[in-house]
Amino acid sequence: MQVIRMTNQTKKKKTLPLRLNILFLLIFLAFSAMIFRLGLLQIVYGEDYKEEVEKKEEVNVSTSVPRGKIYDRNYNAVVDNKPLNAITYTRSASTSQEERLKVARKLAEIIELDTKKITERDKKDYWIVTRPEKAEAKITKEDLQNVEDGKMKEEDLYQLQLNRITAEELAEITDEELKVLAIKSKMDSGYALTPQIIKNDNVTNEEYAYISEHLEDLPGVDITTDWQRQYPYQGMLQTLLGSTTDANEGLPQDQLDYYLARGYSRNDRVGVSYLEYQYEDVLQGQKEKIRNITDKEGNIIDTEMISEGEAGKDLVLTIDMELQQEVEAIITDELLAAKKKSGTQLLDRAFVVMMNPQNGELLSMAGKQIVNEDGERKVEDFALGAMTSSYTMGSAVKGATVLTGYQTGAIQPESVLLDEPLYIKGSPVKKSYQTMGYINDLTALQRSSNVYMFKTAIEMGNGEYRRNKSLPLETKAFSTFRNYFSQFGLGVKTGIDLPNEAKGFKGKDYTPGLLLDFSIGQYDTYTPLQMAQYVSTIANEGYRMQPQIVKEIREPDPQEGIGPVIKSVQPEVLNKVDMKASYVKRVQEGFRRVMQEKRGTAYGYFMGADYNPAGKTGTAQAFYDGPNEDKFLTPTYNLTLVGYAPFNNPEVAFAVVVPWAYENASDSHPINNQIGRRIMDKYFELNEKQEEEGLKNENIEKIQEEAEGTTEE
């Protein structure tokens, strides 16, 4: 029995170490798994979990760069950028109203801001932030219950507070608080992590220096260099150059999605009209891109440069600003002189367009308008009106009428017709300003016969004039006229590289008598720019050129001013008129006689001009439709003049348009011819001067090169 007992104990001893070994093995495996798991978390996923804990976020921000400059054809700056010292504020996503208010109070002790632009809403927001107990009292228990019951949203409570602030409570805000508010409202208007300009106008050296030394005490505040559009020619041509938004406006609300989709920031300045708008993608430039790295509270902890900014490309215009200055001065002078005469109550504007008929380059595009401001008469820029406003142009369009008559077979070159008063049943007598008898087409242009054009229109309408009888005409003649007129640019867009160009008005009444009025330019309306294109097409042997106001696009060059050419705008032929070249030559001769032969309607003003001019005058009976509503539909007269020179090799074509020049025929005065003669004299005078200067500069450069060569030897 004893032996057996010892055997069982032995078995038990053998079993115990085995179980312990299994237990130790399991413990070892568990610890190994834990160690492996910890290693995996630390080594493999450590950075991921660390970033998750810290919740870092990378946000890309673009900062604006100076817009491209705009030069005239001689590289004189027309639109420049004025550098400005600027104070900015960049708020983080977590910055509270109270923190911004604290910074604003510190800034108010340093800088001065205009408080006149503070809105009532700004004041109410400030009142709520600075008077929290009073603001809280604006919310009733009933309001809170309505939120709890779902009858009102919680965010509606703030609007209730705003609505319940009284005028007396707003009056509590002191002048010192208004200074703080002016700053804080700018800080609040910026977007998170995007620099917002607090002040860039008249930042003093003291303000700039003090802030630069105390940036640590002003979280989010920084100093930088900003820019502002500058106009060396004091707003000349301003309406065509267009405008940009300012730093406070940022992107236009109606185009917000458009610009955001193209990488713009909400506070970017963009062109909103005409040249600034049309060439926005060129002038804007490449913005500097910065990556802001923030912590979990939204505070910026690091900043990295992604790409450096590049200023916008520069535009070189076809406009000659020296000529533009002279033309605007002439218009202003003649406009004010005419305004002093009797019968010119409605006269308030005049336009001039000058272009190179060979390539369509606009040399001058000027408009002036008289306005009354606080009882004082002022003359303002209205160059824009040369392409956005239209008028009946009168006899200046008779060149197109004669050419249409040729092409349709209504008349032939050298056709002789009787200029006589036309008595049509049911219509007032229709006649020329004087009875001319039998005349041909050239004399009709030279002396501006209305009846010659009337009879051309009657033939086109398959009518037959009989004294005191009715005159039925085919209305399709309107379409025929307009088709040919459009080939000269009349009644259609000229194709200028600017937005919002007007086409003019096309009458919808096809009464036969109105067809006769159409033939002498007293029915449809045209713009001054269309008139310049029309006469250029005649001067250019029937080729209609697209008017161009931009000549080149160039790289900016801070050192040299003008950088290399990126793109040179090439002349573009829109169409060639569907007429024989001999027909165009014939009308050119008629235009030459207008200015160079006796009895020509412009001979008295252009005789003796050594630049061999040609052109056509115009007077149109019209009805006033300008800004003075009390005089709306008053009968008046528009004056026009188109022309070009030299006749044998045209280098400049022009149109002068003076709407509502006078009210009564007895008060007529030749402001159109006077402006025309003076601008053409000035063009050739400046042209000669610039050629002499160019030759002089070439000689100086040649002498310098020779001198340098001698030195080297």
TrEMBL record:
Pathway: Cell wall biogenesis; peptidoglycan biosynthesis. Residues 690-705 have a biased composition (Basic and acidic residues). Its main location: membrane. It is an enzyme of class 3 (hydrolase). Residues 64-303 form the Penicillin-binding protein dimerisation domain. Residues 690-713 are annotated as: Disordered. It catalyses: Preferential cleavage: (Ac)2-L-Lys-D-Ala-|-D-Ala. Also transpeptidation of peptidyl-alanyl moieties that are N-acyl substituents of D-alanine. Coiled coil: none annotated. Its EC number is 3.4.16.4. Keywords: Cell membrane, Cell shape, Cell wall biogenesis/degradation, Membrane, Peptidoglycan synthesis, Transmembrane, Transmembrane helix. GO terms for biological process: cell wall organization; peptidoglycan biosynthetic process; regulation of cell shape. One of its GO terms (molecular function) is penicillin binding. The keyword Transmembrane applies. It comes from the Bacteria. It is found in: Cell membrane; Membrane. It is a single-pass membrane protein. This is serine-type D-Ala-D-Ala carboxypeptidase. It comes from Metabacillus arenae. The lineage of its organism: Bacteria, Bacillati, Bacillota, Bacilli, Bacillales.
